[in-house]
Amino acid sequence: MNNHCSSSPELGKDGKRRREGEGGDATADRFVENVLSLRHPFSVRSVSYAVYEHEEEEGEDEEEKKFAQFVKVIKYALSHDTQQLAFKLSYVVEAEYGYRFSDLFGTILNCSLKSLELGHVYIDSGFGSSGFQMLTTLELVLCLLASDQDGEFDPFSNFPCLKNLVMSHCRHLDIDMHGNERRLKICGPQLLSLELELVSSSNMEIFAPRLRFFRLEHDLESLNFSKLTLPSLDDAVIMINDEVEFMEGNEGSVRQGVVSLFQDLSNVTTLQLDSVTIEDLSSTFEFLEQQASPFTKLKTLMVKGDTVPYMLLNYFLKGSSSTETAIEFV
């Protein structure tokens, strides 16, 4: 538990359970309640609240108390002109996919938040209509994204200042109860940096006309892009974790998926791959070498490893108009 309230406008709470005799969660909870009951005349710059562990089989009353405290922390932050809020839960009893954003945050007309980190929160339709007009940095970890409405879900379209977005180990619920497919759209007119780490979605569209940096760590089975619009992209880091395997009837779709991904990154001047990605793409080398290379602007190919197979190297370099494309081993 970290408490910076006495000397600086920051609030920190680590709700980690301790062994018997070490104070336990009760002490941490009392600290939070005491802080929230104070009437601070100043703004609180940063609020960090994390619950890492949880006793099993807590009663319904105890769970309601926990939820009430979560809401109090969030309201405290929003009412004290907080600029940075980190709210991370590593457990959930009340709901399988996490507490709904709408239930935790309620209706937000406008707030001063510039940086928001959420862990294990159910991102529902209320997220997209929230009043985060000044938000520039957003990180979602272990979150489920699902709209209550059919069709396209675009949770970031109402964030006019969003420049940096990180999504890690998140899952998009892309099939509704009637079996209809939902598309997840990341719309960021001002977005400059986007990182997707092991995000699961069978139908994702990205529209980010000003994006300069894109980091993607995924496997081809769990993430499928329907459309990527990244005309200003300059720097891309691609990590494919699972080996590309051909099964009966899927050869064409797997190969085309790899080609389509690289075509959508055609504007990059710097591309970074790691040795695991190169190894996992080995089954597509011959096919890729036969394709026209989309990388007409590539100036630097960075490889985390010792070697690059000739067929793959030829695919990345043969389309470049640069007379001296650098290959860097890092």
From TrEMBL:
UniProt xrefs under SUPFAM superfamilies: L domain-like
InterPro entries: F-box_SCFL_complex_component (IPR053197), LRR_dom_sf (IPR032675)
Residues of the signal peptide: none
Domain of life: Eukaryota
Region described as Disordered: spans on this chain: 1-26
Bias (Basic and acidic residues): 11-26
PANTHER family: OS06G0556300 PROTEIN, OS11G0201299 PROTEIN
Protein name per its UniProtKB record: FBD domain-containing protein
Species of the source: Linum trigynum
